[in-house]
Amino acid sequence: MPFLVLFIIAAAIIFFFNQNKGGCSNGVCSAGEDCYTCPADCKCSESEYCSAKERACVGQVCGDGRCSPAECSAGCLDDCSVSACCGNGACDAAIQENSNNCPLDCGLQSACGNGVCDSEENCFSCQNDCGCTEGEYCSAKEKECVKPTCGNKECEYFEKDCCIDCGCTDPGYVCDMNANECVFKEFTLSDDEVKEIVAGYFAGQGKTAESVTIMGPITWENKVGRNVMVSIKDQGWVSAAIVTEDGKVTEVET
What we know:
Nuclear Transport Factor 2, Chain: A; two-stranded antiparallel sheet; alpha+beta
């Protein structure tokens, strides 16, 4: 009997010692342990969280100046911000987290206007995100930014000085392909041909052209021509006319 009593007392002492000895995960929140250093023994209630600053369980109260995990999802903007909540693994829309300000939680989503030229976007489908640099334009054919190339037989943006591809806009001018320069179109009729045409024109009116003076080049009705001054027999004034490259004569007022 005395031996049994001694055995029971010894067992009780060992049990008491094991229950109160230090060490995390022994089921007892002992002195020197807290929710931060040993959360297994020092658990917080559902309405609390473990403050890393205070090393203690504190209540989650919006407005107390401490951003708790639950307040991120609850949208407590008084305590929490995107920078405080980003990285918690949840895309907290309540505090305005999105793919732009927190891709770590929300993922980088493709959306025109998000300021990022994503792989499936281009300058044609989303000019806001994939704009071209100065001197480039967005090719509708290639769906990418390209620089215009003078001489590729395509009149592209920013090629106003490339008559090789875009031609000349001023009437009577043609492009010198070697110099890439708009020059006045060569008049193909000789002076003798011009005089013969003018004489025939006035002869059709019963008039005799005694002399024809050929002046400088002119553009008339989008055609290259020559100004001419004509002295008519028995007429007290000089007539003016324009002869275009197609042989047409037009009288004009002097």
